[in-house]
Each structure stands twice: as C-alpha cells, then as structure tokens.
Specification:
By secondary structure, the chain is of the alpha/beta class. The protein has three domains: 43 residues, Orthogonal Bundle (434 Repressor (Amino-terminal Domain)), CATH 1.10.260.40; 129 residues, Rossmann fold; 129 residues, Rossmann fold. The chain has a six-stranded parallel beta sheet with strand order 2-1-3-4-5-11, sandwiched between helices. It has a four-stranded parallel beta sheet with strand order 7-6-8-9, with helices on both faces. Helix 9 links the parallel strand 6 and strand 7.
C-alpha cells in the first residue's frame, strides 16, 4: 500500500538541490545574496517538488504572515467585483496572499465575520466598503489591525485609511459632456442611496447641472439592475416627461433604459441620449454603443495595497500619492458628438 503523500519540506528542497537548508532559506527570503547558479538550482528543485512555504510556521518566526485579509459583501456587480479582482492581483504582485471573506447583510454577522478574519492571522485588512452595510465590519476590523477601506465615502470609523475613485467627478464629466453636445435637460436615474457610489454620483450630477444651467431632475432609486432602469424609464415615457438625456447610475441600469426606449420606438441619441457609469465589459457592443464612465480599477487595487503596506511597515506614504483617482468619460454613439464651437 502506498504511503500517504506528505507536503515537501525545505529539507527536501535542500537535498534535491544539493545545498544546505540555510541556502534554501536565503533563496526564499534574500535571493539577491545567493549566487545566480545556486539560486537557479534551488528554484528548479522547488518547482520539481511542488514546494510551497508553510505560512503558519513563517508567521511564528517573523510575526508576519504575508497574508492580507479582504472583506467584501460578495456582490457580483461590476464595480465591487472589479475592485476585488484588482486588489487580489496587486497583492500577488507584492508577494502577499489574500484571504477573501464575504460579509452578510446583517450587522451582527458583519461583526462576527470581521472577528473571524482577524483570527486568521492576516497582517492587515482591506475592505471593499461600497455601502452602509459594510461599516460594522470596518469598525470591528479596525479595533486591532490596520485597515484600508476602498470606498467613495469615508466610513465613520476612526483610524481607517480610505481610498477610492472620484465618483462625483465622474458624474460631472457626464454632465459636462451632455452640455457640450447641446443637451438642455437631463434626468438622473439614481442608484440605491445606502451605496456610497450612488450618493456621490447623484451629488455630482446635481452640482454640475446647477452650475452649467441644465434643467435637471432625479428619479429612483434603482437597484443597479437593468429592470429598474427599464421601469424608471417606462414611467418617464408614460408621463411624457422625456428629457434630452438620461444618465443612469450604472451601465446595467442603462441597458434597461435602452430597452425601454427601443420598445417604444424611440431613437438613441436622436430622441434621447443615454449615459451609463462603469464601462462594463461589453458596453461598446450595445446598440448603440454606450457612452459611460470608466473607473481605473487596476490602479485602485495597487493604491489600496500600497496604503495598507505603508501602515504595516510603518513607513510614510510616498509624496504625491493620491487618496482618490480620477475616472474618465468614454464617449460613444449613445450620445451626440460634442460641438466644436
């Protein structure tokens, strides 16, 4: 009967590479001090044996686990999902692993899961704090470990670093674009108001519309999904209250807007221009292709991780490192071309 397989050890790597245990340790921790030929031999042995570092043992020796905890609400929506993916990619590039934990909707559950994540030995925690429901988890985690929240609004928790994308600016870019296309009126289909992104986009829309003199109104809230965009637009059509342009809180709601207009024989952008937010995958293949706002998710992931690593390592954040990142408008065929005069 075959023996039960066991996990390869550093001693096994050392024996295969014909080096000392200490040399293997140096290759793993200080590769620059090992001669290239020796380092290559050790790396080949690691690959051949399928050796992986024992994170728990390393944590006992160094008091650091190289493990980053990440809390999310498990949302499959484009923005939170892309943010989560970007953080994971940035952590891997920096040599950290990510322990992803999903927080439920109830406050007690959020606190309990936050506490469980602390018990895992994570060096620090990143929270994708998209809405009010994530604040209890942020507060729990921040009591005993460094926390960086990725959010459009700072959670009311002392000592928590916050990074995010300038959602208000994104909405302003939309309004400025619409004004340059000649639109004189616009309706914003707002998102759920317990979401920080939705609040910021609504505020940015209202401020920019007032400053630029557009006739502006707001309906909703929608729930980020196409059906709510469809239903809100259908109500506008039924009331005979169509504006020159409709700005949906995200691309999914904008898809519902396009569908409602199409079913009633209304042309986009000739009868009504439509704008979304997020630059969701496939937005350019809608008919017509959707004008929207693109968020720098990859850069946001790197920024969040850099902020957290600075906290963990006790070093100053590099000069001119921003706390927020600007989005950009992607103009397509669902809005009129901007006027050049």
């Amino acid at each position: 009967m075959d023996a039960t397989p066991r996990r390869p050890s550093m001693a096994d790597v050392a024996a295969r590479a014909e080096v000392s245990y200490q040399t293997v340790s140096r290759v793993l921790n200080e590769p620059q001090v090992v001669r290239p030929a020796t380092r290559e031999r050790v790396l080949e042995a690691i690959s051949a044996l399928g050796y992986t570092r024992n994170r728990a043992a390393r944590a006992l020796k160094t008091t650091r686990s190289s493990l980053i905890g990440m809390l999310t609400d498990g949302s499959s929506l484009f923005g939170p999902a892309e943010t989560t993916t970007a953080i994971e990619a940035a952590a891997r590039e920096a040599g950290y692993s990510v322990l992803l934990t999903t927080v439920g909707a109830h406050e007690d559950g959020a606190r309990e899961i936050g506490s469980e994540l602390l018990g895992s030995g994570a060096d620090g925690i990143l929270v994708v704090a998209a809405h009010e429901g994530m604040v209890p988890a942020v507060a729990t985690a921040a009591r005993s470990t460094p926390v960086v929240a990725v959010s459009a609004q700072a959670p009311k928790v002392d000592g928590v670093e916050v990074v995010g994308v300038e959602q208000q600016l994104g909405a302003r870019l939309v309004v400025e674009h619409l004004a340059r296309t000649g639109a004189r009126s616009a309706v914003h289909l707002c998102g759920p108001q317990d979401w920080f992104d939705a609040r910021a986009r609504l505020d940015g829309f209202q401020r920019a519309a007032q400053e630029l003199g557009l006739e502006a109104s707001v309906i909703g809230p929608g729930d980020w999904n196409p059906r709510s965009g469809y239903e809100l637009t259908s109500s506008l059509i039924a009331e005979g209250a169509l504006p020159d342009a409709i700005f949906a809180a995200n691309d999914m709601m904008a898809i519902g807007v396009l569908h409602a207009l199409h079913l009633r024989g209304l042309r986009v952008p000739e009868d009504v221009a439509v704008v979304g937010f997020d630059n969701t995958v496939g937005a350019e293949f809608l008919i017509p292709s959707l004008t929207t706002v693109s968020q720098p998710f990859a850069e946001l992931g790197r920024l969040a991780l850099e902020r957290l690593l600075c906290l963990l390592e006790g070093r100053e954040v590099p000069v001119n490192t921003p706390r927020t990142l600007p989005p950009r408008l992607v103009a397509r065929r669902s809005t009129h071309p901007e006027r050049t005069h």
